[in-house]
């Protein structure tokens, strides 16, 4: 009898711990899922190039944002206008320049890592603004020097919601401005 009771208690504890739903810190997406967000993940690295059609009404300084993470480069970001002529300084620049533009009205406001370190740190973004963090495992690129996780913090829009896999709910992942740990 004691064994049956003990097993019932253990089963309830396990069941209750498995059914708790904790909010995840980031949404982890694989290479195929990232394409709908304008992110290209391949054996050369992580690449993004977007022309925001709403850049003027969003009060953005530039219409275009591009970034890449490669084996020999942690993160390079470029802001530019659609009329700018881009020149490749290295092979990574050439890959980024040759990419097609995505034309999404959602775009990164921060790019960083899981420790809260960020590039493109925009101090004008309110501390309580909700952003959508997407985590990208660089190990998926098969680059020898990149096994880290890059977190891209997107401006949440209805278009972003539609670009996500149907079974995901954007609201479950919204977070305030990342804080360095």
Q: Can you characterise this structure?
A:
It is a single chain. By secondary structure, the protein is α+β, with helices and mostly antiparallel strands. It has one domain. The strands form two sheets. Strands 1-8-9-6-7 form a five-stranded mixed beta sheet, with no helix packed on it. A four-stranded antiparallel beta sheet has the order 2-3-4-5. It is 20% helix and 27% strand. The radius of gyration is 20 Å and the shape is globular.
Sum this structure up briefly.
This protein is an alpha+beta fold and 181 residues long.
**SS-based class:** alpha+beta
Number of domains: 1
Please give the count of helices. Answer: 4
Strand-and-helix sequence, N→C? HEHEEEEHEEEEH
The gross shape turns out to be globular
Oligomer type = single chain
How would you state the average pLDDT, rounded? 83
Strands in their spatial order, largest beta sheet: 1-8-9-6-7
* Main β sheet profile: 5 strands, mixed
Low-confidence stretches: 5-21
Helix proportion of residues, in percent? 10-25%
Keywords:
single chain; 181 residues; alpha+beta; five-stranded mixed β-sheet; four-stranded antiparallel β-sheet; 4 helices; 20% helix; 27% strand
Topology:
Elements: H1 2-19, E1 27-28, H2 31-34, E2 39-42, E3 45-51, E4 64-70, E5 73-80, H3 91-98, E6 108-113, E7 118-119, E8 132-137, E9 149-154, H4 158-163
Parallel strand pairs: 1-8
Antiparallel strand pairs: 2-3, 3-4, 4-5, 6-7, 6-9, 8-9
């Amino acid at each position: 009898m004691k064994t049956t009771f003990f097993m019932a208690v253990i089963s309830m504890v396990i069941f209750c711990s498995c059914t708790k739903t904790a909010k995840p810190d980031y949404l982890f997406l694989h290479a195929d899922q990232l394409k709908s967000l304008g992110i290209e993940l391949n054996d050369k690295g992580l690449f993004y190039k977007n022309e925001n059609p709403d850049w003027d009404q969003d009060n953005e300084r530039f219409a275009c944002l591009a970034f890449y993470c490669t084996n020999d480069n942690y993160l390079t970001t470029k802001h530019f206008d659609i009329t700018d002529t881009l020149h490749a300084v290295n092979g990574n620049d050439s890959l980024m320049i040759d990419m097609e533009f995505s034309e999404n009205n959602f775009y990164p406001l921060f790019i960083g890592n899981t420790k809260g370190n960020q590039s493109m740190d925009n101090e004008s973004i309110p501390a309580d603004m909700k952003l959508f963090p997407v985590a990208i495992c660089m190990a998926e690129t098969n680059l020898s020097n990149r096994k880290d996780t890059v977190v891209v913090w997107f401006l949440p829009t209805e278009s972003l919601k539609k670009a996500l896999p149907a079974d995901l709910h954007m609201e479950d992942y919204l977070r305030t401005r990342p804080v360095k740990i």
